[in-house]
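Entry for S-adenosylmethionine complex. Fields follow.
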Amino acid sequence: MSAENTTPPPNAAQIEYWNKGGGAAWSNYHDLLDRQLGPLGHEAMRVLDLKAGEAVLDIGCGCGQTTFELATRVGPTGSVTGVDISAPMLAIAEARAPHDGAGEIEFRLRDVQTDDLGIGRYDVAFSRFGVMFFSEPTVAFRNIHRALRPDGRLAFVCWQPFSSNPWMREPLEAVRHLLPPSEPPDPLAPGPFAFADPDRVRGILTDAGFTNIDIASFETTLGSGSVDETLAVTLRIGPLGRAVADQPERLPELAGPVRAVLERYLTSNGVQIPASAWIVRALGRQE
Ligand SMILES: C[S@@+](CC[C@H](N)C(=O)[O-])C[C@H]1O[C@@H](n2cnc3c(N)ncnc32)[C@H](O)[C@@H]1O
């Protein structure tokens, strides 16, 4: 009789989160999230300077908006592989209609840290907020590095610290007195702010074999459209969403103070709250 292997995979907690509560919230609100995050993903695509016919890896592609946009940019002779650990989010990605004139698209349920991504298959690796959740980031980026051709390029967008992101900080502060006290999160733990320190990011990429690392600040404003649309996302995604994920009955009580914050940022272009991200780029080898 063979002994059963009960060791959980290194990213077990994230796999559970993105296949259960987190994955469900992102799946339900993916249209509004795409509107909110679209411009930040476009900035990371812009610095990649994609060329027709290139093969692209979309890391943590989620519900697939960026995968389709990348496929449009590389055109019909190019291809994009979207990889993610979330089955429900990939199901949404697979159901999206392809854009005219886009390259070939495939989606794969893969853990970027532990699964085989192939060797030298991709010209480019990209991610919109999909690289901050690895238990061992250097291992994951070594795997990404191995999947790139020797002259491959990497670009991703990740968040600067919570304190530099009023769009997440101000709604949470407005309701903190209504929430149970909580310990400050470990800044190195997998999560939205794990790559907030650019020195840490530079060290991880260097150890993984990347060169010519450039980390640029991208300061912008964002929202999901109207106050109601942005409120729906703010109450369910990000630090506030996580804090109340298992208490949906509290949402009506929290909605008032959060709505008051969002109304202060209402413009003719919908809600627009300041946000700060890093646009990180690197090469597979020294140029
Ligand atoms: C914040 S969401 C971003 C999703 C998508 N890139 C977007 O911008 O809409 C983070 C994504 O990373 C994925 N992810 C987290 N850890 C991963 C891993 N080890 N391998 C592959 N995907 C992962 C999650 O399942 C989730 O879809």
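NOTE: Residues 11, 14, 18, 33, 37, 60-63, 65-66, 83-86, 89, 111-113, 128-130, 133-134 surround S-adenosylmethionine (CB under 6 Å).
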